[in-house]
Amino acid sequence: MKKIFIFLFTSLIAISSFAQNEDKDTYTKIGDEAPKFSFELDKGKIVDIADYKGKLILINLFATWCPPCNTELPLVQKEIWDKHKDNKNFAFFVFGREEGWDKLIPYKAKKGFTFPILPDLKRVVFSKFAKQSIPRNILIDETGKIIYQSIGYEEKEFQSLVKLIDGKLKHKATK
Prior knowledge:
Elements (H helix, E strand, L loop, with lengths): L1 H21 L15 E5 L2 E4 L7 E7 L4 H18 L5 E8 L3 H11 L5 E4 L5 H4 L6 E5 L5 E6 L3 H19 L2
Parallel strand pairs: 3-4, 4-5
Antiparallel strand pairs: 1-2, 3-6, 6-7
Helix pairs in contact: 2-5
């Protein structure tokens, strides 16, 4: 029995390690320093992600045509943005992969979103984190380290992101 348990445990670790190493489309890992980049916050207003150091930063990478993105973003509005938009320790940016203001402004208005949806027409931001696959969420802590990443939308995974953000911002508020 002990040999079977050891075999199963060893196999599970090997499979788990292999699965984590298989994702060649993600360039960043949890614990990494967040990549440096600039982006257009409003038409013509360029900012740098480093300007937000000291805040908990959530980055969402999406496309307007992506079904899982369109499932996730209304939940982000309700369960994350509506709760934390006024928290000075939180910043949230949604980047439309290969999409400009011409698509994003009407999309945001049609969906009724109030969070920043920003262009990433040439994949400048996206390419800092990944080669492909959306939606993606990246959570960066106050020191600039990546503390959470996800690919795709799955309810259980999304709820763990919500809990992590709620916990981090509650903890920061009590300091």
